[in-house]
Amino acid sequence: MPLARRALFALPALLPAPLRAQPRGVTLIVPFAPGGTTDIAARLIQEALGRALGAPVVVENRPGAGGAVAAEQAKRAPADGGVILLATASTHGVNPAVFPDLPYDAERDFAPVALLGVTPQALAVNPRLPVTDVAGFIALLRAEPGRHNFASAGVGSITHLAGEWFRQAGGGLDFVHVPYRGGGPALQAVVAGEASFTIETTATLAGAIRDGRVRALAVATREPSRAFPDLPTLHESGLAGFNAGSWTMAVAPAATPAPVVMRLNAAFNAALAEREVARRLAEIGTEPVTTSTPESAAAHIRAEIARWREVVRAGNLRLERG
After folding, report:
1. CATH topology assigned to domain 120-219
2. What letter would DSSP give residue 93?
3. Is 15 or 81 the better-scoring residue by pLDDT?
4. Which of 3, 19, 140, 150 maximizes the CB count within 10 A of its CB?
């Protein structure tokens, strides 16, 4: 073969990935119904991610079984970067810690790509309660054992587990767990006085906090919330080590080649670094992460599973999937 033709055939290997071939589309699988924090975040980064990849990006909602339906679908997808699961604190943190019969393994079945954002949780109470801080609320719960309801987004949800951690960290607090069908209904229960408190994401609570329908006492993450910088953390309020937040992470099927994972990682980080994307994510209470690596994402999953397993063990919780 003439030298010129050999050089021509070798050229594609030397070009940047977006120029080697016509880029295929990418599907982001959201494990919950439209309208939730994860779905909104997916649609906020959709266009920016498409620009970074040089390929169209579509969002597909696959709700069911606390995220297990979407996770099982994603793990079976072709490992070529065309399907990405937006894993969450539920699918890759709480679920593996709580349920032994999941149809997927959060660590073995996926290749972490990038941690995309963290949404702090906050402890919020009915404003008619005579408390203004965490110490006062714990004192009230101790003075009135069994008289106060805790509203969660459902049995085995991150809200439920955060409440159990609060029970344990407070020295065995006596309150009644009442599960609802999601964070929205749990919030409404607190607003209506059916429940005394909940521990929900700042994204879910923001409007109710700002208009006084609930009183936020503290954020549950170790780091303060940018959306509510005046709120102390539970860690600062005497519950040492308390660190409960929701998060979203891009993960691919386990066999996805490392170069594909790295290209996706760079694209997600670039999309999240766009000023308008960061601004709009902040509006829903999500703090974008722009420097995540596949390695740090994998470490995040391991730490989250270990954290929630300890909460389950300490509380002697026996939970079953519905």
Report:
1. D-Maltodextrin-Binding Protein; domain 2 (3.40.190)
2. I
3. 81
4. 150
Domain at 26-119+245-315, CATH homologous superfamily: Bordetella uptake gene, domain 1 (3.40.190.150)
Answer yes or no: are the C-beta atoms of 121 and 153 closer than 8 Å.
no
pLDDT digit string (tens) for 109-136? 999 999 999 999 999 999 999 999 999 9
What residues does CATH 3.40.190.10 cover in the chain?
A: 120-219
Helices (H), the chain: 3-14, 17-20, 37-53, 68-75, 95-98, 134-143, 158-169, 183-192, 202-210, 258-273, 275-283, 294-315
**pTM of the predicted protein model:** 0.85
Size of the chain in residues? 322
Give the pLDDT of residue 113: 98
72-105 pLDDT, tens digit per residue, is 999 999 999 999 999 999 999 999 998 888 999 9
How many Cβ atoms from other residues are within 10 Å of residue 186's Cβ? 28
